[in-house]
Structures are given as C-alpha cells and as structure tokens.
Amino acid sequence: MSYSDPYATFQTPVHEPPPPSRAVARVLSGLLGLVLTPVALGLLAAGGYRQQTLIAVMSTRRDALGIALLAGGAILLLLVAALGAWSSSGPLLGGLVGGVLPGVVALAMPEWGFDLLDVLPHGGLSFGLTTWLFSGALLAAGFLLVGTGLATTVARRRPAR
Question: Which spans are transmembrane here (predicted)?
Fold first, then answer.
C-alpha cells in the first residue's frame, strides 16, 4: 500500500528587499505643498486684483506686473499639483490648509474670514484675497488640489497592466 505525501514540497522562500521608504518624499512634498500653495494663491489674488482694477475703469491698458503675478501663481499651483507624482501629501495638505479650510471658514463664519484677512497688510493682496475668499474661488482651488492628491493616490495604488 502506498501513501501520498501529505506535505507539498518545501520551496526556499525568496527574500525580496523591502520597498524603499516613501517617508522623505511624503514629508518634502507636504512641506512644499504647504509653502507653495499660499504663495501661489497670493500671487493669483494680487495679480487678479490688479487686472480687476483695470477692468473696473474700462481700461484697455495691459498691466505687465498683474499678468506676471497671475502667470507666476498659476505656474506655482501647477508645481503643487505636480508634486502629486512624488507624493500626494503636497497637493492634499496644500489644498486643505491653503484653500478648503479658509474657504469653509469664511463662507460659514464671515466674521472669522475678515479676522483672517486682518492679519495681512492692506493693499492689493488683501483686497484680492477678499474676492477669492468670499466668492468661493479659494475653496474651489483648494478642492481642485485635494482632488489632484486623491487622484494621484488612486493612480499609484492601481495595479499595473
């Protein structure tokens, strides 16, 4: 009488090196997102205010500084979104802290929004941010950055085909 072997043959486990840590990428991306997002939004607000003052008087002049501020802010926001390729913490933190949180606070409790603006020196930046803050544009920009961070997280976790 013969018996079958109850145990499968033993195979030596292959030891793969652990994946490299992403901690440095997460921390640097998060810090850059926290720093670059408010700078970008400030440039966009100040440039937008300069352009808005020209339009308010029906001027057809061009304001080179206002255009440069708008372009610089847009490029910085593009860089924050591109940080998502490195780690999604940059766009997520930048969007939450620089856009969603102040936008929700200002729309839910306008007096807190004015207190937040009182921290800034009065001028083009604070007037531009007032428009962004109370029109919901800051909230929208924050949600777009958060969406970018979430999309890069989902794309990174999707199995390769």
Answer: 23-44, 65-86, 132-155
